[in-house]
DNA sequence: CATGATTAATTCGCT
DNA sequence: ATTAATCATG
């Protein structure tokens, strides 16, 4: 067999010459099943891409014979890109894709044989939930007790385990037939019967709507491969090498899918000979499988990932080989020691120890704050310090947390500090209401059977068609055993309808009919269809006439949807509307992550889950408290706790050079403040690795003191010190040393200058706000896309940058030229709420340029000046430190003491 | 049918 | 605290 001339031939030396022995072995291994146990930062993507190149150039495989599977589109794109540099543009034609998009391709091609019509809809979880809710309501179920979400969760579990509805129904509610109306449950509490009935009915409706949900993409592909030998045979011959990334995250269905695709269990074709060697390696019999993963980084069990897939790999696949990669190229030994120490506490795990040739590096820095706000302020201060003093680019720093809700205080602190940040996660672009509305129109046009989407838009924008009208159509559809769309098209035949409703319905029918016609005529131009829909439906007009400032950004999101469609149209030769909808259905959060190496000039905020696979020179792990992390719901159960620990392991190993761990003694959630114990994971990090800047929070010292009746005054409100800048001041400050010994979190009260501590017992919540955050400037999209290219951009990267990026990212200020600028360090701030889904540059969310700056400039002060402070009163300036926007002045307030104040935020006035 | 008021929920989230 | 969803009312 001849090699594809398009593939750039690579010599063995080029492919493995610069790898370590284990990596090299993994790249070259010949055999039917290979598990690469890739510890964090061990160069797994590199090995995977090299192995693919090796298979092409050394085994003589054709690009079309390879299937490489990842979990995210971003990972797929990245792998494809790295492959392209290795083997050339032919990589663009290869199947390098996610599980889901590979399945879509298969189902689009061969789905007819299991009853899927082309143009089927892909429901996201919101669509699925809506459908479940519709069904549950019809069955008169108490939606409060049986939430659509929990029902869907159960259905998802069943699907992930490939339990079909037929099977489950037979076991728990054999007297129900899908499509049957007026079914009564035997007795109210039979959860399994309810699940069985809803599962069956849900599948029935999906079928009627010619739709599949995410889990179905996998499950139905498995079904297809099992039921249709011809199709199975086709893929068995087609894919000779299957490679799966992040194997520890696969669920049972995905595991079976891989087996079916590879033909591991299939009867071998007649000409099968045992997997040979040399140039014909892997060319007969089942496809050769390579999986890469790290069981210590399995953090998606809660969503069905089955860690046994990777643990039992050697038993599952005959003649399997395991190669472990334990040399880490990312982090310092200190960081790895911490990670190893933590993960060792998990039971039943294969011992594995990461090591590095990089050296010890700096100690981990710890900090115990009084509350979440102060924790955030300290982190923001430390980031400002690292940036100003050590020249570390903002984009080289990341703040991680367990739950999205924790981002709030961090965002506020960064806004206060004028530090640019971007938040990854939260609501996805394609799940935003207005975007979903527009997409629902498109979906309904492409797939008229899609009742869920059509019903969604019936009254969007408001056109006086409510539950009544919907019910009438629904009835008609049922009577005729037809779709909702069919009913709509036949409104004229429906009797006994209020004239008003009839008129509105006819108008809507005409709208859909005309849009439908337009769609057929312009199917190859999705962007034009989008424009037509936005225009004719009134979606755009509705938002345009609105005065709600939020709607401005919604409008912008719609226009971005149109741009995305245009972009899709340009880069896709045979573009169709259905094709475009597919791309929108399968994008996820992680696709929004900034590309590696790209200097966005912003600090990145994200959850630990989102952080998997990423790395940053400086990482802050915040909220290290029992109940926060590990999460309260996971603390009881040993397996859930183990997963939390793996999450901690993932978090720690994201850091390349410096790791910070912080916690808050008091955290308020759901409006209620509660005392938080330090996370057990902190205890699991060896003490000598951590340099505690503050081991115990002020309130904790007080708690101890109260207990012993020893506390006395001298507790200023924490905000006093906060503004005075102690938190970001030079190293050490006043804590640390006094807590260095003794019990780790014991009460070492009474020692040290206790300028911390809150006056009120739970000072946190009351003092949090200063209200500048919420309504006003945050959501108002008017200033829109000014950032990134706006006027008055300033360069923030200081010289001598330690971690490269000497370019010093510049970013625009929404507020051009405000305030006098000395040394070019005063400028607007940029807060990107989310990163745009794909198209370069702009974000889907508006940007705020609010500036809490007090307009004071270091240049205007000199020693001896008199100032007044909101709390301390009159004082005299005794020292000035020009650190640009983080300038500090030291003021003697007489009886109130001498304070160091961060000029930018201090509540002072020059006299 | 739309609007303001009340109530309930509320980890993480690849596709 | 926040927000989404539901409920009562104009």
TrEMBL record:
ATP binds at residues 38-45. InterPro entries: DExx_box_DNA_helicase_dom_sf (IPR013986), DNA_helicase_UvrD-like_C (IPR014017), DNA_helicase_UvrD/REP (IPR000212), P-loop_NTPase (IPR027417), UvrD-like_ATP-bd (IPR014016). Its EC number is 5.6.2.4. It catalyses: Couples ATP hydrolysis with the unwinding of duplex DNA by translocating in the 3'-5' direction; ATP + H2O = ADP + phosphate + H(+). Residues 771-791, 803-827 have a biased composition (Gly residues). The keyword NADP does not apply. Residues 17-332 form the UvrD-like helicase ATP-binding domain. Residues 734-770, 792-802 have a biased composition (Low complexity). The keyword Chaperone does not apply. GO terms for cellular component: cytosol; DNA helicase complex. Residues 333-613 form the UvrD-like helicase C-terminal domain. One of its GO terms (molecular function) is ATP hydrolysis activity. It is an enzyme of class 5 (isomerase). It comes from the Bacteria. Residues 729-851 are annotated as: Disordered. This is DNA 3'-5' helicase. Keywords: ATP-binding, DNA-binding, Helicase, Hydrolase, Isomerase, Nucleotide-binding. GO terms for biological process: recombinational repair. Belongs to the helicase family. UvrD subfamily.
């Amino acid at each position: 067999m001849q090699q594809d001339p398009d593939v750039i031939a690579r010599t063995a030396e080029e492919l493995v010459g610069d790898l370590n022995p284990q990596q090299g072995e993994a790249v070259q291994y010949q055999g039917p099943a290979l598990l690469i146990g890739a510890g964090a930062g061990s160069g797994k993507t590199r090995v995977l891409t090299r192995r693919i190149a090796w298979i092409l150039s050394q085994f003589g495989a054709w690009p079309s014979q390879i299937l490489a599977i990842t979990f995210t589109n971003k990972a797929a794109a990245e792998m494809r890109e790295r492959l392209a540099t290795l083997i050339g543009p032919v990589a663009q034609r290869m199947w390098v894709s996610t599980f889901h998009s590979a399945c879509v391709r298969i189902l689009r091609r061969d789905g007819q044989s299991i009853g899927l019509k082309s143009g089927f809809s892909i429901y996201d979880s919101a669509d699925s939930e809506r459908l479940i809710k519709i069904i549950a309501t019809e069955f008169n179920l108490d939606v409060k007790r049986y939430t659509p979400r929990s029902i869907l969760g159960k259905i998802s579990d069943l699907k992930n385990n490939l339990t079909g509805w037929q099977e489950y129904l037979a076991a728990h509610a054999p007297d129900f037939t899908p499509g049957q109306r007026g079914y009564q449950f035997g007795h109210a509490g039979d959860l399994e019967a309810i699940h069985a009935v809803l599962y069956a009915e849900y599948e029935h409706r999906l079928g009627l709507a010619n739709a599949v949900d995410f889990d179905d993409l996998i499950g139905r592909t498995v079904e297809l491969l099992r039921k249709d030998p011809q199709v199975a045979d086709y893929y068995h011959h087609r894919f000779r090498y299957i490679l799966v990334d992040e194997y520890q995250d696969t669920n049972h269905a995905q595991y079976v899918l891989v087996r079916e695709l590879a033909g591991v269990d299939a009867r071998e074709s007649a000409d099968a000979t045992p997997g040979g060697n040399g140039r014909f390696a892997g060319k007969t019999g089942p496809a050769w499988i390579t999986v890469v993963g790290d069981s210590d980084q399995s953090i998606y069990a809660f969503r069905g990932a089955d860690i046994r897939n990777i643990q039992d790999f050697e038993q599952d696949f005959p003649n399997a080989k395991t190669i472990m990669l334990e040399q880490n190229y990312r982090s310092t030994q200190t960081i790895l020691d911490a990670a190893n120490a933590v993960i060792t506490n998990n039971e039943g795990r294969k011992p594995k120890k990461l090591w590095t040739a990089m050296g010890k590096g700096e100690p981990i820095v710890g900090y115990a704050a009084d509350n979440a706000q102060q924790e955030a302020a300290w982190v923001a201060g430390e980031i400002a310090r690292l940036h100003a003093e050590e020249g570390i680019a903002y984009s080289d720093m990341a703040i991680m947390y367990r739950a999205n809700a924790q981002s709030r205080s961090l965002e506020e602190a960064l806004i206060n500090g004028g530090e640019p940040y971007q938040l990854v996660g939260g609501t996805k672009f394609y799940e935003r209401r207005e975007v979903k509305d527009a997409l629902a129109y498109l979906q309904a046009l492409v797939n008229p059977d899609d009742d869920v989407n059509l019903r969604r838009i019936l009254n969007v924008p408001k056109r006086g068609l409510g539950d009544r009208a919907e019910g009438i159509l629904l009835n008609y559809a049922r009577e005729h055993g037809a779709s909702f769309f069919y009913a709509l098209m036949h409104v004229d035949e429906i009797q006994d309808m209020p004239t008003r409703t009839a008129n509105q319905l006819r108008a809507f029918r005409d709208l859909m009919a005309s849009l439908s016609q337009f769609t057929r005529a312009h199917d190859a131009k999705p962007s034009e269809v989008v424009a037509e829909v936005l225009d004719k439906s009134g979606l755009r007009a509705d938002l345009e006439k609105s005065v709600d400032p939020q709607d401005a950004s919604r409008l912008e999101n719609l226009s971005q949807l149109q741009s995305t469609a245009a972009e899709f149209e340009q880069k896709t030769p045979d573009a169709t509307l259905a094709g475009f909808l597919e791309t929108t259905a399968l994008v996820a959060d992680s696709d929004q992550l900034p590309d590696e190496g790209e200097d966005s000039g912003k600090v990145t905020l994200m959850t630990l889950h989102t952080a998997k696979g990423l790395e940053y020179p400086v990482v802050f792990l915040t909220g290290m408290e029992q109940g926060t992390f590990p999460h309260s719901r996971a603390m009881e159960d040993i397996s859930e706790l183990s997963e939390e620990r793996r999450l901690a392991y993932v978090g720690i190993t994201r850091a390349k050079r410096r790791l910070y761990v912080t916690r808050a003694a008091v955290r308020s959630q759901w409006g209620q403040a509660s005392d938080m114990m330090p996370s057990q994971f902190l205890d699991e990090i060896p003490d000598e690795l951590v340099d505690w800047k503050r081991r115990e929070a002020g309130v904790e010292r007080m708690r101890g003191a109260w207990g012993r009746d020893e506390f006395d005054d001298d507790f200023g409100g924490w905000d006093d010190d906060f503004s005075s800048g102690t938190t970001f001041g030079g190293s050490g400050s006043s804590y640390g040393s006094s807590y260095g010994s003794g019990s780790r979190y014991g009460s070492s009260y009474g020692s040290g200058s206790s300028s911390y501590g809150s006056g009120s017992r739970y000072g946190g919540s009351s003092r949090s706000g200063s209200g500048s955050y919420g309504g006003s400037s945050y959501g108002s999209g008017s200033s829109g896309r000014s950032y990134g290219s706006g006027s008055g951009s300033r360069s923030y990267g200081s010289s001598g940058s330690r971690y490269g990026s000497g370019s010093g990212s510049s970013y625009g200020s929404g507020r051009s030229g405000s305030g006098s600028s000395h040394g070019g360090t005063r400028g607007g701030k940029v807060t990107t709420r989310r990163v745009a889904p794909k198209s370069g540059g702009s974000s889907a969310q508006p940007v705020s340029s609010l500036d809490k700056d007090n307009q004071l400039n270091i240049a205007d002060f000199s020693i001896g000046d008199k100032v007044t402070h909101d709390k301390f009163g009159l004082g005299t300036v005794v020292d000035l430190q020009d650190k640009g926007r983080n300038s500090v002045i030291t003021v003697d307030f007489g009886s109130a003491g001498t304070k160091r104040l961060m000029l930018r935020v201090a509540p002072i006035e020059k006299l």
